[in-house]
Amino acid sequence: MKRSQVVLWTMTVLLSCLLPVQGQPEATDKCLAPYFFVSGNKSGLDQLPLKHMESAVNISGIIADVKITQIYKNEGQAVLEAIYIFPASTRAAVYAMKMHIGERTIEAKIDRREKARQSYEQALGEGRTASLLEQQRPNVFQMNVGNILPGDEIVVELFYTEMLSMEKNLYEFVFPTVVGPRYSNQIASAAPETDRWVENPYLHEGQAAPYTFDLSVTLSGGMPISEIFSPSHQVVIDYQSKTQAKINLADGAGREGNRDFILKYRLVQKEIASGLLLERGEKENFFLLMLQPPERVKTEQIPGREYIFIVDVSGSMHGFPLDISKKLLTDLIGRLRPSDRFNVLLFAAGSELLAPSSLPATRANIDKALRLIGGQSGGGGTELLPALKRALALTRDEDYSRSVIIATDGYVNVEKEAFELIRKNLGQANFFSFGIGSSVNRYIIEGMARAGMGEAFVITQANEAEQKAAKFREYISSPVLTGISYTIDGFDAYDVEPLAIPDVLSERPVILYGKWRGEPSGQFRFEGKTGNSKTYQASINVSDYQTVDDQAALKYLWARHRLAMLSDYNQVDSDQELIEGITVLGLKYNLLTAYTSFVAIDSEIRTTGEKVTRVHQPLPLPQGVSDMALMAVSTSGPGSFGYRSKSGGLLKAAPEPRLAELTVAGSGAMKETLTVLVTDLEGIRTDLQGELQNLIETHRSDLRDSYTQAGISGLDGKVEIRIMLNSSGQIKSVSILSDDFNNKVLEEYIKTVLKKWQFGSGNIRENSSLTFSLEFKQ
To answer: Residue 419 sits in a domain of what CATH number?
Structure first.
């Protein structure tokens, strides 16, 4: 009988937690995890309703105002609900949303998260088109657009403002375009609603986003601009005047939507001027103060220092990110002074230490560390918290100043837990974080550094590693200011953020936000110690600065900073009083928060009971991130998989047998399900194990065809296979070793499929052989 088939891949590389369900020891549940998107063949269904996304950015002075436009179009015949996960800046204060349906514009309203969700679901049930914007993390948002009728084009706009980061006379604007896949060891069925976004589909490595992307920037520097450049994209720059310019993406370049857009510009003025912005509102007045610190004092006599390097070697770091980490660590460790001490902790699903306690920075110890790091290829989960705890538990020499340096892409789901752990251990070390990759999780990278009174660095390209390493050495050699305090005389300021000013480790301004009452007069006075322990004093006279009428920007920036202090760096455990405080702030200042959402509902009833099909918009993998990012497994429970490093420590999880379910539909009610696994991997190099597992998924259609074209059914058994590779990773020959396997037709198809496979790990000897099994289960 000739068969046609439909492939339903519930093969979820990440999803195999294998943890027992309570009361049912033999049962298993799956981890909360992303998965690879597979296009189905359901007639009339548009699985990719997001057609275009663009961002229009207006930068004035130190403040950026951003409008993001998302265009959804239903080109199928089914009524859709589209779900799209997307990022924004960690500093973004999202203050408005609009939905356009034809000529109609609906202004979104802010409401408590639960009520907004209820209103949205009710609108869908009534046949109204609606959109819902929720915050899953301060830099991760979820857009739901429901009741998109066939032929509809729905345009959703959202607006946010942020203050730019700056150092000396260099300003930086970052627009993230994609959320990288997050590792989580939570059981999916027990995960809270706010974490379920982690289960999002992703495209394979190298696949372009299924929507178009564009971005434009209008820049008003307020003073002459000396230089504009983008280290991430090719751009076209049109100078309107000495102080203004327009920046657009170059035609045909950088429109993949798979990495952060980064814009940097310099002003002619050699340093950022100290200053004060005063904004008078209808009900409240706001201020923003910037104080330029003194120049760094360079000292040659640096006291002894200890460095703990925590390096992410998980699956998402495979390839480009880990290569950059190796380059960075070679620079940092290779330039330690003999008077320094150091240790290295590698982590994935488990962790491995270079030594039980920190070692002197001798040439021999440095070479030992570099060999350990250089031998990593990336694989397994991303258990950041256990790695941090293990590092903090290391015995400390009180005569040494300890710094913890974390190198990771941040693709984890434990941001608040990490912040709290660092905050509780501030007396032990300063924390510095290096985000490695084209689209890192800046929320955790920046948050760990702020919580640890350190600095954050993001490396998006290989040529930045040396530069960022040099900056790090400059920062830790001598702080610009320490022990900073301030007083306010004659100016009625209140609700000032931050409550305390940490050490200034780079030449960037000290910034205060706050509210004020009465007349703008009085003075701010600052005092601290410079790098050579001399007293530093500065003052700013309020009356020297003009007051502007309500422009809302300072209001949003103050409220966003207060929200960050409440939500990002407080106790992890939910506290109802804290939640209510965040909620009230969001409602009062019309801001998106973890507990407030925007909802826009059309007044027209557009459907009458049609079933709505929910589709999750797939995301591209960030540039440089491989499919290995979706191959992490948990080692936290029974049935988990792992291997031991030579030194005996559990380093990372070995790839679990790859599960692929092929549902083969025949005529009438006939249907068969075939499960294919890769097993018997002992003795195979771990990086090749991972590639072997991944090749099964990559060539799934060929494996499917080998089964169906052989015209067999009820296949159940194991096929032992030996392949021989050349030095380029190509398969030279395939041998079937199983004596009891006698299906010659299927055997030939298997050989044909496997000869298409290509390994890319490198360091493969000519005529290397691998022996493994394909296990078929009916």
So the answer is: 3.40.50.410
